[in-house]
Amino acid sequence: MGFTNSAIGNNFISERMDRLPVSKIHYKILCLTGLGMFLDSFDIYLASSVLGALLKNGWSTITLNATFISVSFIGLLIGALLTGFLGDRYGRKFVYRLNLLIFGIASLFAAISPNMTFLIACRGIIGIGLGAEIVTGYALLGEFVPAKVRGRWVSTLSLITNIAVPGSALLGFIIIPTIGWRYMFVFVGICALIVWYLRRVIPESPRWYESKGRYEDAEKTVEMFEKSVEEEKNIKLSPIDTSVALENEEHVLKTQDSFWDLFKGKILSRTLVGSITLITINTLIYTFITWVPTLFLKNGINLSKSLGYTTIMMIGAPLGAIIGGFIVDRFGRKWCIVSFMILAGILGYAYPIQNNMSMILILGFLLTISIYILVTIGLAVYVPELFPTKIRLRGTGFSNAAGRCATIFTPYGVAWLLNNYGTQPVFTSLGILLAFTAIIIALFGIETKQKPLDEI
Known about the structure:
mainly alpha; 18 helices; disordered N terminus; membrane; transport; Inner membrane metabolite transport protein YdjE
């Protein structure tokens, strides 16, 4: 295995970014990234409330709802793949503004849909923007914050993102029965365009500049960070230990800035682990979360109560992100993911066999917590850390695309099982998938806890 020069030109960009204390500029990037990620998650999960309402009023059917969800995933898949290539080639800044523009405008068009076919088409375009946002957001923040707090900060971003889950359910509970489902799209469309404008002040990642050999640009960006920290903290940053930085270069994986690097050498096992992890997490999310209101409706619960029960259960999403952020830098990524996949499988098996509504809500709440611990540690923190800077967005994008690709067909499988066999086979299938993935990660996954990005 060859090695790259992360310190060419004696800039030591990565080492200097990692030695910075957390400051206002980091919080600004977190807030602006978080706003976009919140809207991304909100737009994804509004499908749960909207589809339940469309099914109830006869505007749609279970089959059309499944098509809506599958087309969303096709858009998410395209967005993830395009972002991987565009973000690694043209920079993170290029893609993290473009995606908001796409799904903001498309959401406003969705609000005036004359029929379900038009709404489904708009959803596919929205999905492209949504897929780009989730790939860029977590990787971008991870490139700005120091290694020792990276897990906690990216988990915080996941918390902000996943507050949108109960937020979307709550807003759906308030808006849909009163003024209609179209205003859900109006809300997210207008907000996305506002955040698109605000994000113009986020700088380009200096690690990306360095990976492209643009050392002067990288130096200017790092100097901006250093100056900001020194002025805010009233300190003088001490020089880094260059001898240690040079010694650490031997641990940096060599890549040729090619998509095919994802399928060579040590990177291949990481690509497989990342892809299988996100296939499982995405299947888990979009089988359980998206279909919850429909599952309630199928059991004879009215629309208003269905949305209310869904809101209660979705409170577990931000709680799961909080727990994930608390444990990720303490116990590491790998074994936390394995443990909670096993727990989610057990809860998923027990959930559909309950007849008491209190137990259904309790187990659903606990399952939601487990799912979003996995989302936080697996999707947000772990997978972007697996890939070197030169191909980070392509690796993350490919893994996300694999997850989206698998779930393009999942809604049809879920719809078929619900119509013919009920809910139990759906959750049994999930349990098998979770067990398989836990074994793969246990055998082939690496631990990335608090390691510098260029040394993982």
